[in-house]
């Protein structure tokens, strides 16, 4: 037993002994006062101990997240040179992006997990202030190579720890990132923090039904060798709840399916026909600055 807990237990009214030097009442008051001080001290120690435990749990969670992100970054580094950013699923999310993002001249736009930069290249050059982040150095290098006509601020960082001030962006777009995030509510809270009031965000992710059909993890074979990219299945209801918790209003939700035209382009997708391919969200942050 720790000394302060031992002291606390020893100094109790049950331990009172009468003597000629003081009355029972005086002894009771003195002991009660001491017990009150020690009780408050014990509560403070208990609070500090709880904080230490929470800190240790947070540290373990952070270590696990960092390890997961390192694996993801390594996998995408290997995949970057051969990544196909024109597969038929782009027929679904890119039109949605252009319809729902609704940028204006001078608009501050963040591409959250830009990959090869395909979303950026759908925007009119010179009209907007563009920032793009990605966890993978290889993907950023390819995005820069393929988007040389655009004036973009490129940053290698995690989507779970955005290095931006609150209200830094008017629009945020994120394609196929949420599948690699352990906790969607954390991603949406990050989006809400850096999105300006009345700002819009467009988020696209692989549909959970598609992940169950094909597997949530990605195995990559490239000139750099084999790589494993971990994925996470998030139900649509979970995504909606996470957005709501972050005070992001879902204006539009679409769950487009794989079409015959897509299968015609990719015959290997025959087993995917009719399966929901993506979850597409158009979000708005309501409120005032400050």
Write up this protein.
- The structure is a single chain.
- By secondary structure, the protein is α/β, with parallel strands linked by helices.
- 41% of the residues lie in helices and 21% in strands.
- The chain folds into two domains: 3-56, no CATH class; 79-285, Vaccinia Virus protein VP39 (Rossmann fold).
- It has helices at 3-10, 24-79, 90-101, 137-146, 184-194, 208-214, 236-245, 260-265, and strands spanning 108-112, 129-134, 152-156, 169-175, 195-206, 218-222, 225-229, 248-254, 278-285.
- The protein has a seven-stranded mixed β-sheet, sandwiched between helices. Strands 6-7 form a two-stranded antiparallel ribbon.
- The radius of gyration is 28 Å and the shape is globular.
- Residues 1-21 and 52-64 have low confidence and may be disordered.
């Amino acid at each position: 037993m720790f000394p302060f807990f031992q002291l606390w237990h020893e100094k109790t009214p049950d331990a009172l002994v009468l003597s000629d030097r003081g009355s029972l009442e005086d002894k009771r008051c003195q002991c009660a006062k001491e017990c009150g001080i020690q009780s408050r001290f014990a509560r403070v120690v208990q609070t500090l101990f709880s904080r230490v435990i929470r800190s240790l749990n947070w540290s373990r969670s952070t270590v696990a997240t960092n390890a997961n992100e390192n694996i993801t970054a390594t996998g995408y580094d290997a995949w970057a040179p051969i990544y196909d950013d024109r597969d038929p699923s782009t027929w679904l999310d890119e039109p949605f992006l252009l319809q729902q993002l609704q940028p204006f001249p001078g608009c501050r736009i963040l591409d959250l997990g830009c990959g090869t930069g395909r979303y950026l290249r759908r925007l009119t050059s010179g009209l907007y202030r563009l920032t793009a982040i990605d966890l993978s150095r290889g993907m950023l290098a390819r995005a820069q190579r393929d988007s040389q006509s655009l004036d973009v601020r490129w940053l290698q960082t995690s989507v779970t720890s955005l290095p931006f001030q609150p209200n830094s962006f008017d629009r945020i777009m994120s394609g196929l990132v949420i599948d690699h995030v352990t906790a969607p509510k954390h991603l949406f809270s990050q989006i809400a923090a850096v999105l300006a009031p009345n700002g819009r965000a467009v988020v696209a992710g692989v549909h959970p039904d598609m992940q169950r059909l094909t597997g949530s993890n990605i195995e990559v074979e490239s000139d750099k060798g084999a790589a494993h990219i971990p994925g996470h299945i998030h139900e649509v209801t979970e995504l909606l709840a996470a957005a709501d918790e972050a005070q992001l209003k879902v204006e539009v939700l679409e769950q487009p399916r794989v079409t015959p035209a897509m299968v015609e382009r990719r015959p290997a997708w025959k087993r995917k026909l009719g399966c929901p391919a993506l979850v597409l969200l158009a979000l708005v942050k309501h409120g005032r600055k400050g």
